[in-house]
Specification:
Blueprint: E1 17-18, E2 30-31, H1 43-51, H2 64-75, E3 82-85, H3 87-99, E4 105-109, H4 116-121, E5 126-130, H5 139-144, E6 150-156, H6 168-176, E7 183-187, H7 202-208, E8 212-217, E9 230-233, H8 236-244, H9 253-264, H10 266-289, E10 293-294, E11 301-305, H11 313-322, E12 325-326, E13 329-330, E14 338-342, H12 346-360
Parallel strand pairs: 2-12, 4-5, 4-6, 6-7, 7-8
Antiparallel strand pairs: 1-13, 3-9, 8-9, 10-11, 11-14
Helix pairs in contact: 1-9, 2-9, 10-12
Amino acid sequence: MVSLTPKQGIDRIKSHMLSGQAAGLPPVSIALNSNESAFGPSPLAVAAFQAVASGLERYLENPASLLAPALAESVDLDADRITIGQGSDDLLARLARAYLDTDTELLRSANGYLKIPNYAHANNAHPVAADDDDLTASVDHLLAGVTERTRMVYLANPENPAGTYLSGAEIRRLHAGLPDHVLLVLDCAYEEYVDAPDYEPGHRLAAEAGNVVMTRTFSKIYGLAGARMGWMVGPPAVIDIVNRIGLTFPVATASVAAARAALADTSHRRHVFGENRRLRQKMTRSLTELGLTVYPSQANFILVRFDDPARPAENAAAALRRQGIAVRRFASPAYRDCVRITLGHESELDAAHRAIAAYLDGDI
């Protein structure tokens, strides 16, 4: 009998999200679980996507040469510091493949993006968790966690699923304390939603340092989650390595066309930013008034904690799901009492608020 054995670490890969599926539930009518943009993509992006349909029989040669110059102009960098991939997940996975190996370590904030340990496991590396400060990454604990085996420090800024962030000064303090052989990976998927005045865009440090990269995505504020487009800024040598281990034809023609058009539509992006900020403030205020704890968020979602043992988060998510409203829960014990709610349309958030209020009152 054939017996095939994968890398040892692959057995340790596990899902970081809890499924909300169960028999007998109504269809999801309000999806507030995956941090997609409720406002959709720019109409220009949709038109650009459709316009290339007649050429889908052709591979797209060197797609980075089409998108990287536009991205470089948007952040005032040289295009040779930028590459693209199938969402930022693709780029993060390639970074792990390139710089992690057996008996090396990937250091992360304990309750940051919960998928990150899987990148280490897939490469027989060891994920190491540094304590945080009430779901906010701690620079002091991260620096204390660095060892001679550390090869990568990963930080989402803002974080997911908490929505918390570190200031530009704190990020620079973290970088200054790292050895030169350690790669600092800044995952800035939600950066376009940030309004904190002390936040510093991740590409600035990535443009200055030889051991820092920043990843971003078109899946969030640009509304192109289905197009699977991400990009990365870093030293040209790191960009070269990441490109070498990419697919031969890494992204779809229509996805690149949509991304270029979305990038150019600044008015749509400003509209989404403004509505997201308004709704984030409104939903935070209204749920706080119900007696729930809402973590301060800089993203397009909020993390809500249910402190009453008689009204636990698990039952809250189930009650909402029975009303056709999907929210997200996570496998980590740190999030046992929490649900994450994506900021959808105002009417959707109002419906979620009513359902949560009814659940707290024992009506559903």
